[in-house]
Design goal:
Structural class of chain A: alpha+beta
Largest sheet of chain B: 10 strands, mixed
Mean pLDDT of chain B: 89
Largest sheet of chain A: 7 strands, mixed, barrel
Strand content of chain B: over 45%
Strand order of the largest sheet of chain A: 2-4-5-6-11-12-15
Mean pLDDT of chain A: 86
Oligomer: heterodimer
Shape of chain B: globular
Number of helices of chain A: 7
Helix content of chain A: 10-25%
Distance between the termini of chain B: 17 Å
Distance between the termini of chain A: 30 Å
Radius of gyration of chain A: 22 Å
Largest interface: A-B, 89 and 81 residues
Order of helices and strands of chain B: EHEEEEHEEEEEHHEEEHHEE
Radius of gyration of chain B: 20 Å
Helix content of chain B: 10-25%
Shape of chain A: globular
Structural class of chain B: alpha+beta
Low-confidence stretches of chain A: 235-242
Order of helices and strands of chain A: EEHHEEEHEHEEEEHEEEHEEEH
Number of strands of chain A: 16
Number of helices of chain B: 6
Chain lengths: 377, 347
């Protein structure tokens, strides 16, 4: 093992984390399968199918993108070990961080390339082509440890004009045009605004929303119990029914001398486990406005999850209404970080190539494999 | 070699890069050789599990480092057509050390003066990511407030970090002031040699600075030496977060050209105060040997402004004053390139 030297100046704290009392505002819209497949091919399906033995595809039965604004009032580092700090006070006893995170989640399915692997290695995970945070240390942790594509942004969340509504916005460093010498600047990336959560006398008539189906006290209670129960389902089904969010990301290291080359490429997964879900409230989707700004350097990521007609940036805002919007409170545990596949990498002269390696066994099979020993499909 | 997969999140500054019209302020600080030895042993000289074929040690004689602030108003890649042009301000602690190659029969040969950079604070996240992920600087995102006063050579810089005053499971990280630098007075000089002769106690540092063109008064045009910087680039494993999946010593080279507007500050003309909090205490002890605040409350510029000043950082903290031997400022164009990866561990 090569030890990592933890610097006192840059206190990036390793997971696991515990996030109590989180507020989630979520918005769902239809996404095109083609661009998501292109994203999977670029980020996850590196090399040949024979070589890697699996393929990532968009999930055809759930062709939706989900935008989440997550307010973390308290982020607790759950690692109590002090060994990383040379015996000094462990991260868990140093303090807590609060921040807001925003991401777009796309469900993707991993299929094994052979019949055996199809049965034992197929699973559903979540790709995050866009993820921003307000805290620089959080961005560094996500990027370096897990390969998440985190950026630092100015994020605001608040009630909108009316009580019990939601308003969120993101400003990001970006470039207006692909022209030499154009300076990076803070640019508007996204705005979201809703009417008050249902039921409300404001906005469109409530009966115009499909969400009214879930607005009775009994239905709301039932939905909360269903989500909480789903975590039990995951445990009881040995992971056959995916309930918590497992992200997959491409973790890479650039060569310092030739930054267009990679020294390391792997797929990393981790789990966000939602529980104690309460206060589930729906927004009338007819009163939700989502606006992305198709500006210069932002176009690349927008084309992954929006239905863009232009192959180049238009410089104009794209406004639409989602299929659904809702909010809830929950506790979240962030854990189970794993490298599931290391791609073979040619590191150039003087260094041996990185060989391919895999640990792709589907979640449902893991306990059985642990009990009976490895299987070779 | 295998191609790196570019994405929206890797729109970043790639080396080699050029910074046009950079403004630098550098303040020489004396420190204990034991601090340098401890840092070098921890970052460069250990077995991880193999040992790099280099021995890093402090330069013989008194130790001086530079606490530097550089504003880069226009920085961009030299070789790549990319989303790259940006501006930022960096603050870093750097000092020269001696690197010797260890031969197969354990001789120490080829002594070379290289610089190390134990910490760097920067106000642009794109630069923080590039620095950490490509050339291995230990960079942290910070708030930097830089002001020029109305009089000539007046300089004031404040830095804030998300930090806590006292470690406790219930402490909440908030923007706290960590560094205050103020310099005024100063004198424009054109003859570095004369300045060096007037300060024989600093002859070694002035010679190193002169050779690296960090202190080349009045010189314009072509490069003169430049600075060799050695960084430890390391990336954590995703499963065992105490382990690195990659660890290497990266050597880069920066060259300053068109050096102009050289101003020298006497130590007494410079206020350099670190604001004391538990978050910063470990760094101050490790780097400078400071174990407690040396003065109560914030510097006078911030005490009258209440709890929160420019940059929305809290200033109601005690401070640790760091004596400055001398300071200097100048403008230049900076070219930066990664020369080579000196050693990759675990191969």
């Amino acid at each position: 093992m090569i030890p990592y030297v933890q610097s006192a100046t840059s206190p990036e704290a390793p997971p696991p984390y515990h996030f109590p009392g989180v507020t989630v505002n979520a918005f769902v819209w239809e996404a095109r399968m083609g661009p998501i497949q292109d994203y999977c091919d670029r980020q996850f399906n590196l090399g040949s199918l024979e070589e890697r033995g699996f393929v990532y595809r968009p999930v055809a039965f759930w062709p939706y993108a989900m935008l989440l604004f997550i307010d973390y009032p308290v982020m607790i580092i759950a690692d109590q070990s002090s060994s990383a700090l040379g015996g000094q006070l462990p991260f868990s006893d140093r303090g807590v961080v609060s921040q807001t995170e925003v991401f777009v989640a796309l469900p993707v399915a991993r299929y094994g390339a052979t019949l055996g692997k199809l049965l034992t290695q197929s699973t559903v995970e979540t790709a995050l082509p866009f993820i921003v945070v307000g805290n620089g240390v959080s961005a560094v942790c996500g990027r370096e440890m897990l390969g998440l594509e985190k950026l630092v942004a100015e994020i605001t969340t608040a009630e909108g004009v009316f009580p019990d509504s939601f308003k969120g916005s993101i400003r990001l460093p970006g470039w207006r045009t692909w022209t030499a010498g154009v300076m990076q600047e803070m640019l508007p990336f996204l705005e979201v605004e809703t009417a008050p959560a249902l039921s409300t006398f404001r906005g469109s008539p409530p009966e115009t929303s499909l969400a009214t189906l879930a607005q009775s006290r009994e239905a709301g209670w039932m939905l909360e119990e269903m989500v909480n129960g789903s975590n039990f389902v995951e445990w009881a089904s040995l992971g056959l029914v995916p309930t918590s969010m497992r992200t997959v990301s491409l973790k890479q290291i650039r060569d310092a001398v030739d930054p267009s080359k990679a020294l390391y490429q792997s797929l990393v997964t981790c789990r966000s486990y939602y529980y104690d879900i309460t206060n589930l409230r729906m927004y009338n989707e007819n009163d939700i406005t989502i606006t992305f700004h198709d500006t210069g350097s932002f176009h690349e990521v927008l084309q992954v999850f929006l239905q863009l007609d232009s192959p180049t940036p238009t410089g104009k805002p794209i406004t639409f209404r989602p299929k659904a919007g809702f909010r809830f409170n929950a506790d979240i545990d962030f854990d189970q970080m794993r490298t599931i596949h290391t791609f073979p990498v040619d590191r150039g002269p003087g260094l041996p190539p990185v060989p391919a390696s895999s640990d792709l066994v589907a979640r449902w099979l893991r306990p059985l494999r642990g009990f009976f020993g490895p299987v070779s499909p | 070699m295998t191609a790196f997969v570019e994405s929206f999140a890797t729109q970043q500054l790639l080396p080699p890069w050029i910074s046009k019209g950079a403004q630098s302020w550098m303040f020489a600080v004396a420190f204990d050789a034991a601090r340098a030895t401890a840092y070098l042993n921890s970052y460069f000289n250990g077995f991880y599990p193999d040992r790099a074929p280099f021995e890093y040690s402090p330069i013989p004689g008194p130790q001086y480092g530079l606490l530097c602030a550089t504003y880069h108003p226009d920085i961009s890649c030299l070789n790549y057509a990319h989303w790259d042009t940006l501006s930022h301000t960096e603050v870093y602690w750097s000092y020269p050390v001696l690197r010797r190659t260890i031969t197969e029969d354990h001789l120490l040969v080829e002594p070379t003066v290289v610089w190390v950079e134990p910490f760097m604070l920067d106000d642009n996240p794109s630069i923080v990511f590039s620095s950490r992920e490509i050339w291995g600087s230990d960079a942290t995102l910070a708030t930097v407030v830089r002001k020029m006063g109305p009089a000539p050579n007046q300089f004031h810089l404040d830095v804030g970090l998300n930090a806590v005053r006292k470690y406790s499971p219930r402490s909440v990280y908030k923007p706290l002031a960590v560094l205050h630098i103020k310099a005024e007075g100063g004198q424009r000089i054109t003859d570095v040699a004369q300045f060096g002769q007037s300060r024989p106690d600093l002859a070694q540092l002035v010679n190193i600075l002169g050779a690296s063109a960090q202190f080349a008064g009045g010189q314009t045009g072509g490069p003169a030496g430049g600075v060799l910087l050695n960084n430890l680039k390391q990336i954590r494993d995703a499963y065992d977060l105490r382990a690195a999946i990659y660890r290497a010593i990266v050597e880069s080279h920066s060259t300053r050209t068109d050096v102009d507007n050289l101003v020298v500050y006497e130590g007494a003309e410079v206020e350099l105060d670190f604001m004391w909090s538990d978050s910063l205490a470990e760094t101050l002890t490790e780097m400078f040997g400071i174990k407690a605040p040396t003065a109560a409350g914030p510097p006078s510029d911030h005490s009258a402004k209440g709890r929160v000043g420019a940059g929305h950082m809290a200033w109601d903290l005690d401070r640790a004053h760091l004596p400055v031997v001398f300071g200097f400022s100048f403008t230049s164009n900076v070219t930066y390139e990664v020369v080579r990866t000196l050693h990759t561990y675990g191969v």
